[in-house]
Write a structure and sequence with these properties.
- The protein folds into two domains: 2-122, Rossmann fold (3-Layer(aba) Sandwich), CATH 3.40.50.2300; 127-217, Arc Repressor Mutant, subunit A.
- 40% of the residues lie in helices and 23% in strands.
- The chain has eight helices and twelve strands.
- The protein has helices spanning 10-22, 33-37, 59-68, 84-93, 105-122, 153-163, 172-180, 190-201, and strands spanning 2-6, 26-30, 46-50, 74-79, 97-100, 127-130, 133-136, 141-144, 147-149, 170-171, 207-210, 214-217.
- Helix 1 (10-22) packs across helix 5 (105-122), helix 6 crosses helix 7 (172-180) and helix 6 packs across helix 8.
- It starts with a strand and ends with a strand.
C-alpha cells in the first residue's frame, strides 16, 4: 500500500511516517500543498491531508483536484480545528474519514486500516471487461477463455492505467510517471519493454503505437 501524507508540521509528520512504515505502508511526506499538487496524478492508495497548510494550496484544494481526476485513492482529512464545518466540508468534498488534532499516531493508523479495509470490501467485485478478458481489479486477476493470465505487478499497473484511460494517448514519460512514479530516473524505454510483454500475454489488447509520441489503448 502506498500513502501520501501532506502535513506542514515536520516533527508530527516524521512521527506519523514512522508509524505508517512500521505497519507496512510505503509513505511519502509532503510539507506543503504546492509540492503535493505536483504529484496529484501519481497512483497511490491513500492521501492523508491536513486541511490548513502553509502556502496557497489547502487540503481542500488537493481533494478537489483528486476528484476532478476521478482518483480512486482513499482520503483522510486532519485538522487542528475541531469544528463541524471542517468535518462536513471534507466529507462533502469526498473524503473517507476525518480526524481532529491533536490525535495519537496509533489512532491515525487504526483509521487508515479501517478506511482501506472498507475500500477493498466495497471494490471486491470490481470487474473491468475488455474483449475476451475479465479483469478483477481488487484480486488483480485476469481471466480469459484459456484460463488465468499471470501478470507481474508493473504489468498489471500498466494494464489498469490504460483501461482507465481508453482512447487517450500518452507519451512514454507520462506512462513512466504514472506507473513507476516521479522518482524513477531510468530510461523511458522500460515502457516499451513492459508493453511488449503485456502484448505477448494479452494478444487481444489493442494498444496502438503512435510513432513519435507514445501509446493509447483502443
Amino acid at each position: 500500500m502506498k500513502i501520501y501524507y501532506v502535513e506542514d508540521e515536520k516533527d508530527l509528520s516524521e512521527i506519523i511516517r514512522k508509524y505508517l512504515v512500521r505497519e507496512g505502508y510505503e509513505t511519502t511526506v509532503f510539507y506543503d500543498g504546492e509540492t503535493a499538487m505536483q504529484h496529484i496524478d501519481d497512483q497511490v492508495d491513500m492521501w492523508i491531508l491536513d486541511i490548513m497548510l502553509t502556502g496557497e494550496v489547502s487540503g481542500y484544494d488537493i481533494i478537489k483536484a483528486l476528484k476532478e481526476r476521478n482518483s480512486q485513492a482513499s482520503i483522510i482529512f486532519t485538522s487542528a480545528r475541531d469544528q463541524d464545518l471542517d468535518k462536513i466540508m471534507g466529507l462533502e468534498l469526498g473524503s473517507d474519514d476525518y480526524l481532529a488534532k491533536p490525535y495519537s499516531p496509533r489512532e491515525l493508523v487504526l483509521r487508515v486500516k479501517a478506511v482501506l479495509k472498507r475500500y477493498h470490501q466495497s471494490h471486491s467485485n470490481e470487474i473491468i471487461p475488455y474483449e475476451d478478458y475479465e479483469i478483477n481489479v481488487t484480486k488483480r486477476e485476469i481471466k480469459s477463455k484459456n484460463g488465468l493470465i499471470e501478470l507481474t505487478n508493473k504489468e498489471f499497473e500498466l494494464l489498469l492505467f490504460f483501461l482507465k484511460n481508453i482512447n487517450k494517448a500518452f507519451e512514454r514519460q507520462e506512462i513512466l510517471e504514472h506507473v513507476w512514479g516521479s522518482n524513477y530516473y531510468g530510461s523511458d524505454r522500460v515502457v516499451d519493454d513492459l508493453l511488449r510483454r503485456l502484448r505477448h500475454k494479452m494478444p487481444k489488447l489493442n494498444i496502438e503505437t503512435i510513432y513519435g509520441f507514445g501509446y493509447r489503448l483502443l
